[in-house]
Amino acid sequence: MKRQIRIVFYLVLASVLLSTYLWAEQWKISFNGYPGTMELSGGQSNYTGRFNLHGNWEQMLDLQVYRNAIFFRRAAADQKYLGVMEGGRMQGVFTQHGSGRYPWTAERTDIVSIDPVVPPLSGGDTGAVKNLALRKQARQSSTSYGGTPERAVDGNRDGNHNAGSVSHTANVPNDWWEVDLGSQKQIQEIKLWNRTDCCSERLSNFYVLVSPNPFSGNNLKALLNDPSIWHFHHQGAAARETTVAVAGEGRYVRVQLAGQNWLSLAEVEVFGHDSSGSTAYPVDTGSGTPVTIYWHMADDADVYLNGKALRSYSPSFKTRPDEAPRPAFSARATLHNGDIFTVGGRRGGSFGLMLLAVDDGGRIVFKTDRSSWAVYEPDERSDWYEPAVANSSAKRPVTVQPDPWYPQKELNARYHNTALSIWSEPDKRFAYLVGTVRLSDQATGTINPVGTWRHHPTATWVVSQGADGRYHAQEHGLGNASGPAYFTPAGSFRIDYVTRDGAVTGFYEVTFAPDGHTATGRVQELSGPRRSGNTSWTKVR
């Protein structure tokens, strides 16, 4: 009886899907005079698709349209696609730092229907088929040219190595790449996406292996002789996309070369469903820690918690394409141990991605390094910044920026080892959190930066907090300097001030007095010392 009900349900679902028309748009493009093609699906204001130039340069795209303005959200950190759409035509400019500006145009040539996916009529797990490898823990036998294994499961199929989404091993015998799906899964097929900017022939004479247990080592012959390991051999050179039918169970998936070469993978997708039929999101096992999430993104991006959208919005385009949107956007969420908070798209490939967790002691632990998604213990990484959640008797609203020394690690030589705010470099995009937290080493009294603070002895210097939570500093004759305030590891409240071209020229460092209405500290100009030394502020009551 239950089987009959299930069959009737799927027949009804299939008829609904077949009556729903899905479309893909075909576009002809010209990029700096070179011909190419583009395929987009979606509609209204959001599209996804791929961009292929002259058959050898491909990028996956998320495109948004707002009042005829278009923005390709998925691109390398130093690249921008901007333009306008009018009817079936697009035109705009592609910019890349250090390379120049290139005009491009596109004309829609066709609209084709896409066959809907109808679930199989089986008595097994009826969960939705999905990419089980997306952002899972990945490893490889070696790494070269910065091609970390996580790049092959970041959701970005872009095969251009310079775009930062292709894994790369060294040139040693039997190199391998593998992913842990987290638990036993029902696997239907595996898709391998090859590198496209060059060297695609390196992915040849390789094996795809699926195992219920961790792979024991590099010995390919021993793995092939293991009866518990399913394997598939691909003899010749792989195409841009290679599909391997599996129709079996497993937890660990490996791609291993039979000979010696570099192994580069743009993306590995493992399609199937959970063998256990478990939910895709963590179960709420406690009260959690409520936080407010603010983000400033130069490429307006949606926000997700464990793959579920917290809030989405239409972008607000500005005159300058390198300027982050104002005001900041925010969303409320309750975080639990192991939760993953993402800014930039649930499939990955955008920027500003963040892994966030709350440990059993209630501490908020997070990192902003998008090159790795492994969960570390708090004491494993010395560059992590770990504010403690406030108790009910000491709650104070404080703005906290994860890893306050980022992106100083990449730019410290240029800016004389000064911690930078995210506004100092518009292309260094990541989010920051606002929560009810306190610093364990803060012993200077009440932390109350909210409000307007005036610098003394004159009123020409002003530090104030806007309605969106950002702090602004201004001096007549210098220009406007704005950025999110943050705390240094020593507990001082700090804000950089920047010129209109984005250069950091100095900073304020403040310690708040116990009365909550006065603050002392110093102001330092990096290009000075035109104005530096001790300073003080008084809050306007």
TrEMBL record:
Residues 137-169, 519-541 are annotated as: Disordered. SUPFAM superfamilies: Galactose-binding domain-like (SSF49785). The keyword Amino-acid biosynthesis does not apply. Residues 117-273 form the F5/8 type C domain. Residues 532-541 have a biased composition (Polar residues). It comes from the Bacteria. Homotrimer. This is Coagulation factor 5/8 type domain protein. It comes from Trichlorobacter lovleyi (strain ATCC BAA-1151 / DSM 17278 / SZ) (Geobacter lovleyi). The lineage of its organism: Bacteria, Pseudomonadati, Thermodesulfobacteriota, Desulfuromonadia, Geobacterales.
